[in-house]
Design a protein that fits this description.
This protein is α/β, with parallel strands linked by helices and about 200 residues long. It has helices at about 1-10, 15-30, 35-50, 70-80, 120-125, 145-155, 185; strands spanning about 60, 85-90, 105-110, 130-135, 160-165, 190-195. It is about 40% helix and about 15% strand. It has a six-stranded parallel sheet with strand order 3-2-1-4-5-6, with helices on both faces.
Length: about 200
């Protein structure tokens, strides 16, 4: 976070010519960021980095699954390319079909500003012996304080934590949903992937 802050400050201090140069380079770089390339890089990251530290890798994936939303679709597409053992921990409050797929476990409540009890999710993670936990993050998914407590427990269990951040702009006028509240948690994560 400190490095990002320094970089933003440095850009803020640039003169107009330097800004135009950087902007031109950024536009060229952005053209190479196609959906296929980014997806391939994410798959490579999960296969090469996430799956290496343990003898037997078991990935836990906290995400929407049965919702019609981009994060659920993103998760399904990324998981299709992985051969590791993966358990999906989806929200209880989605339109869940009457018969669940084997490794999809409804485990948490999405969108609750009330206290979130992650006990069911925690027990599922322990039961299937997750070694790496992927957290798909969007502001509306979690109560931040309770998410921090839950992730701290997972880190104490020596589980790799990887956050995929699908939103980084704080919602206006909601003090409990400020990204700065998650900075201590994010500093303890193995990796943070940010989508813009």
């Amino acid at each position: 976070i400190d490095d990002l802050t320094d970089q933003m400050y440095n850009v803020y201090q640039l003169n107009q010519y330097e800004i135009e140069q950087k902007t031109s380079l950024a536009k060229i770089s952005a053209k190479s960021c196609t959906w296929d390339k980014v997806a391939a890089q994410n798959i490579s990251f999960v296969k090469d980095d996430v799956c290496q530290p343990h003898d037997k890798t078991v990935i836990g994936w906290i995400s929407t699954w049965y919702s019609r939303c981009g994060i659920a679709s993103y998760s399904r597409n990324l998981i299709k390319s992985l051969s590791e053992e993966i358990y999906i921990f989806s929200p209880f409050n989605e339109n869940i079909p009457s018969t669940l797929e084997k490794k999809i476990l409804p485990s948490w409540y999405m969108g609750s500003d009330e206290n979130e009890n992650f006990d069911v999710l925690e027990q599922h993670i322990i039961d299937v012996e997750v070694t790496s936990l992927i957290v798909q993050f969007n502001y509306g998914f979690y109560n931040f304080q309770d998410l921090d407590v839950f992730i701290s427990k997972m880190i104490r269990r020596d589980i790799n934590i990887i956050f995929f951040m699908h939103s980084t702009i704080d919602p206006p006028n909601i003090q409990s949903k400020k990204l700065e509240l998650l900075v201590p948690l994010l500093k303890r994560c193995e990796r943070i992937m940010v989508h813009t």
